[in-house]
Write the structure tokens for this entry.
Amino acid sequence: MFSSQINPGLMINNKAAILRKLKEINLNYDWFETLETNPTTETLVDDEVDHDFNREMHFYRQAQASVLESLKRLHSLNVPTKRPENYFAEMAKSDQLMLKVKKALCEREYVLSKIARIKKLRNEKHGAKMEKRHERHETKQNETPKKGKPVKKISKKALHKKKVYGCAGGQKKRSKYNTAESAANVSHGKKGKPKIYKKKFNTNRF
């Protein structure tokens, strides 16, 4: 087989055969049709062949030198290399679609600016509020302590209410339930004297 005749580990560089084949396929076109360049750049050192970064930089410099050389030759042939200012290319998308995209972008920009403005005002308001609170706190600390407040007089009604219903969360449920002591006390009249009820008999029945 053909594959068995070639040694995979053998590098073949038959320069004479390559040049002969190049002459056969050469079409002898003008340079303007091919833009073929062969810039004279530094060759890679054997140590840099396996170095990825150095190898890519060599390709970059070679391409850059080719572009500069081609520009010089094009300018010498009076060939324009820049797009004219009045050049209008056909858009891949319609103008209506681009207007919709532009409108959507403008609306998005307006909404974002509005949100940023509201956020800024909120932060300023919060900062002013915290500053006022801090000022009030400082003024309270700097004020001289006042003397004790006068004790308010409590009326008898309030004392009785406090005693019966409790005060400040005291027991209020079952406070009016009868006890053995309250059931035995029959003095509910004026000045603690019990009332005597006389039973009237109707003599007309007999």
